[in-house]
Each structure stands twice: as C-alpha cells, then as structure tokens.
Amino acid sequence: ICAALFAVIGIRAGKSDKPVNFWAGVKVDPRKVTDVYAYNAACGRLWKTYSVPYWIAGFFGAISGMWEFFIYFSLAALILACVPGISLLIRQYNRIEKQYISR
C-alpha cells in the first residue's frame, strides 16, 4: 500500500500544472519556481523512485510464504527505505529545490 501511495504521489506530481509541495503545510510559491514542469517532473521521479524499495519489500513479503527466508529480504528493503531512504529523499529534494526555486 505504501509503494502504491508513493507511486501515485509521483505520478500526480509529474502531471501537475502547479508546483507540488514536498513538506506538509509548506506551500511552494509558483512565482519562485523557474520551471514548473521540470520541477514537478523531478519531484515526481523522486517519489516514484522512493516507492521502489517498498515494491521490493512487498514482493519478497509475498513470496516469503514459499521460501521463508525471503522475509529477511523484505525487512532489509523496508529498513533501507525507512532509515537511510528518508534522509536521501530529503537530500535529493533539497537539490531539486536549489535547482528550480529562486530565493
């Protein structure tokens, strides 16, 4: 469910005409975005990429019924997505922000 949610956020962000928001409660000023479509495309790719470890975890979790040790691959993917993944997500968004939002 998390993988699908992040993928849908990415798809909707990439297709939006208005600048998408990354942080909850923080609006992006459209006048400060240098290229709205490129900014939204970058944010969309960011969210879709972030969904990948969750898809992997779901896949390994689903097949762990056949081979029990696959649950460890599922847990490893979730841990990587949650622990370093969130910090990488934030760092990459900050790069997108520097590239497309003027101060």
Outline the structure in words.
With 103 residues, the chain is mainly alpha-helical. Helix content is 71%, strand content 0%. The chain contains three helices and no strands. It has helices at 2-15, 36-63, 70-100. Helix 1 (2-15) packs antiparallel against helix 2 and helix 2 packs antiparallel against helix 3. The protein is elongated.
Secondary structure elements and pairings:
Blueprint: H1 2-15, H2 36-63, H3 70-100
Helix pairs in contact: 1-2, 2-3
What's the pLDDT, averaged over the residues?
93
User: By helix and strand content, what is the structural category?
Assistant: mainly alpha
> Strand count, sense and closure of the main sheet?
none
Note poorly predicted spans.
Answer: none
Number of helices: 3
Helix content: over 70%
Form type: elongated
Describe this protein with a few key phrases.
103 residues; mainly alpha; 3 helices; elongated
Task: Summarize, please.
With 103 residues, this protein is mostly helical. It has helices at residues 2-15, 36-63, 70-100.
